[in-house]
Amino acid sequence: MTGSAPQQRSQAIPQAIEPCFWPVLALTAGAAGVVATSLFYLLSPPEAVLPFVPLDPTRAAAGALRGAATLHVAGLIGITSDVILASAALSLGAQASLEDNGDSRALGWMLIATATLVFIGVDTALGFVLSALAAQSSGAFLGVKIFTNTLFALGTFGFGLGGIVLLTPYIRGRVQGLGGTAWPALVFAVVSALAGAGTLLGFDLHNFVGLGIGGGAIAFVLVGLRLLRPARP
C-alpha cells in the first residue's frame, strides 16, 4: 500500500515531454519571419494591407501601387515564414497530442497551424497579386481585396484563439516551461482573437488586427527561445 502512493502521486501530476529541438527552432524562426513581414507591412500604406471597415477600393488600390515594393518583400518573407511556422505548429501539436495530460495544447497548436496556413493566402495576395491588379486598373481588385481582408480577419481570429487555447494550461500552472513569456503571449492572443472576430462582424478594428499579429509574433519568438532553453528542475 505505501509503495503505491508515490506512483499514484506521479500519475496525478502530468509531466510534459520536452519539445523536440527542430520544431521549436522552426517555431522561433517562423515567428521571427512574421515579425520581419510585419515590419515591411508597417512600411507599406495601411489601406493596402489592413482590413479596413468599410473598405475604400480607391484608397486601397492607390496604396497597393505606392507600396508595391515593400508589399512584395513582405509577401515573399511572409509566405516563407508561414510555411515554416505552420510546419512547426503542426509538429508541436502532434507531439502534444501524444502526451496523456488532458490539456488543450495540441488543439491550440493545430489552431495556430491552421491560421498560419490561412495567412499564406493573405501574404500571397498582398505581396504578389493586389499591386499587379491595381496597376492594370482591373475590376478584379475589389473582389480580391475583399477576399484578402476576410482571410486576414479570419487568420487573426484563429491565431488568437489558438494562442488562448495553447497558453491556458501554462497560465493555470498545469504545464511548466514558458515562465514569464506566457502572459504577454496570452495578451496578444486575446487582442488577436477579439480584433479578428470584431472585424468579421463588421467593426473597424484594423489597428488592433495589426497589433495582435505583430505583437503575437514577437511574443512567440520569446516563447520559442524559452522552449529552446534546457529544461531546469
Automatic annotation (TrEMBL):
Keywords tagged on the record: Membrane, Transmembrane, Transmembrane helix
Q: Does the keyword S-adenosyl-L-methionine apply?
A: no
Q: Which domain of life is it from?
A: Bacteria
Residues that span the membrane, as ranges:
21-43, 73-94, 106-134, 146-171, 183-203, 209-228
State the protein's name.
Answer: DUF4386 family protein
UniProt organism field: Methylovirgula ligni
